[in-house]
């Protein structure tokens, strides 16, 4: 049986069938049921730190070891997680509709791992699996680095005193919990830039106050300019509060797009609110998206 109201499902699918120029804006809620925490609300704390406060150049400047431990933990968790049915359903839609592009704010690598066609996947906020030099004058960047841990000093500490298990995985400590001791990481043990041999590397993600990758922005701009009309934008698992990403909802709307929101929280609608002809599907994206795209 259906988990979304039948009339909404039918009207959405009728519109989707007629649509060719489609956008999806993805947020952390898409990966929630894969076990990865979101930023705002429950799970948005890492130890005593607000996750969005660690995602800043200032935090990295002040304490690169701590920020790297946060990202090292997230890389590790993302590698352990699996894409869920929504990631696969979106990848499948991209193969059927070649004028569909996905604008993902997620850095977890789950859409690529669900084989989302790369040319139709725009990673607005970078990737946990890219690294770049933190030195302003060095342009070094490396992509698809899946080494975990990225350097030995960033390995997730394990509980060596636990006699109940011999598996290293099971002995891993949950360092997102503030009650678990976190060893300090010496600056000299952080990943070093192999190019300039001066700076340390940093995660290849977009922090607050930083520009989104220009190649990604250019692709998205080109798509928007090319299409006089956009048929549909699906806004999936995002609080839609971070710009410029959230602005694509209005951009699409200004080109005639109908808006379909898929979110657990009925209050998380984009700034402009719900318009006539929009859909709001409340619940877990991992369940709803596959049903909508069936
Ligand atoms: C479920 C669910 C389930 C749960 N199923 N749903 C205009 C106005 C005001 C401010 C600005 C503006 N323009 C720019 C700014 C400043 C700033 C900004 O937007 N601030 C706002 C917060 C006010 N923007 C920037 O700084 C951006 N840069 C920029 O503008 O640069 C300008 C510039 C130009 C030229 C030169 C220099 C500068 C950059 C923004 C970068 C954001 N980075 C982060 C971190 C990425 C790395 C990392 O992952 O650590 O991106 S912050 C964080 O927020 C992350 C996310 O991608 C992003 C969005 O969060 P998301 O995905 O929506 O997650 P949540 O937690 O907010 O929401 C989850 C949702 O899922 C909720 O709605 C739940 O209900 C739902 N949910 N479970 C379905 N199972």
Automatic annotation (TrEMBL):
Q: Where does this protein hold Zn(2+)?
A: 133, 138, 193, 196
Please tell me whether the keyword Transport is annotated for this protein. no
Pfam families in UniProt:
SIR2 (PF02146)
Asked if Metal-binding is a keyword of the record, the answer is yes
- Gene Ontology CC terms: nucleus
Xref: PROSITE patterns:
SIRTUIN (PS50305)
Q: Which UniProt keywords apply?
A: Metal-binding, NAD, Transferase, Zinc
Report the residue ranges that make up the Deacetylase sirtuin-type domain in this protein: 2-294
Query: Can you name one GO molecular function term for this protein?
Result: metal ion binding
CDD domains with a match to the protein in the record = SIRT5_Af1_CobB
Q: Which residues does UniProt mark as catalytic?
A: 125 (proton acceptor)
Q: Could you tell me the superkingdom of the organism this chain comes from?
A: Eukaryota
Signal peptide location: none
Q: Record's family?
A: Belongs to the sirtuin family. Class I subfamily.
PANTHER family, sorted: NAD-DEPENDENT PROTEIN DEACYLASE SIRTUIN-5, MITOCHONDRIAL-RELATED
This protein is called NAD-dependent deacetylase sirtuin-5
